[in-house]
Specification:
Helix content is 63%, strand content 0%. It is built from two helices and no strands. The longest helix has 20 residues, at 19-38. It starts with 18 loop residues before the first helix and ends with a helix.
Amino acid sequence: MSVRNSRNSHDPQPERLPLRWAVIIAVAAVAAVAAATAESLPAAIGTFLAVAGGMHVIVD
């Protein structure tokens, strides 16, 4: 029976945010800013969520 050392089982660097999510968040933020300037804060939040959700499904 072997015992794993939990300190050595992890990589020295923490897992980073994938580039895919950085692009999704950036595009959704730009769309939300455009919606905020044209409409209101609730419209900007809805736009951010819609764009981020749509890109999450489309971009793979």
